[in-house]
């Protein structure tokens, strides 16, 4: 393949369209969450991921798993956790079975904020998808997103 190969060009255009869709959705949700709840998309995502933990076997995520889930580096995730901990939305504590491990849980205040912000997130997502669906280049991607099913709980 060469740089001018039609297949490569189509692939690059597809990637650009996907990137554009993601950016528009994220920006729309960011504005809504900031205005309504003083939360960023990353903060919302972190609270959401951590709120799904449980006390059973394998129920708590390691920082690397959290970082992967919110699509940030481990250091950026740690800084984000610290900011939310400073706001009283998260708390850290030592793993009871491995004193080297540190768990992060969502506080009651964090759960309340997440519950209040979830409808805002969902409405903003729907609005962003509806707007993108009016763009002929993005409409096929919107249909794909809408057809995806949530992964089964582990």
Can you offer a commentary on this structure?
The protein is mostly helical. Helix content is 64%, strand content 6%. The protein is built from 6 helices and 2 strands; from the N terminus they run ααααββαα. The chain has helices spanning 6-37, 41-51, 63-70, 74-86, 108-133, 139-147; strands spanning 90-94, 102-106. A two-stranded antiparallel sheet has the order 1-2. Helix 1 crosses helix 5 (108-133) and helix 3 packs across helix 4 (74-86). The longest helix is centred in the first third of the chain and has 32 residues, at 6-37.
Strand content: 5-15%
Mean of the pLDDT scores? 90
Structural class: mainly alpha
- Series of H and E elements: HHHHEEHH
Radius of gyration: 19 Å
Main β-sheet, spatial strand arrangement: 1-2
**Separation of the first and last Cα atoms:** 41 Å
Task: Give the SSE map.
Layout: H1 6-37, H2 41-51, H3 63-70, H4 74-86, E1 90-94, E2 102-106, H5 108-133, H6 139-147
Antiparallel strand pairs: 1-2
Helix pairs in contact: 1-5, 2-5, 3-4, 5-6
Summary, kept brief:
Helices cover about 65% and strands about 5% of the residues. It is mainly α and about 150 residues long. Strand 1 (about 90-95) and strand 2 form a beta hairpin.
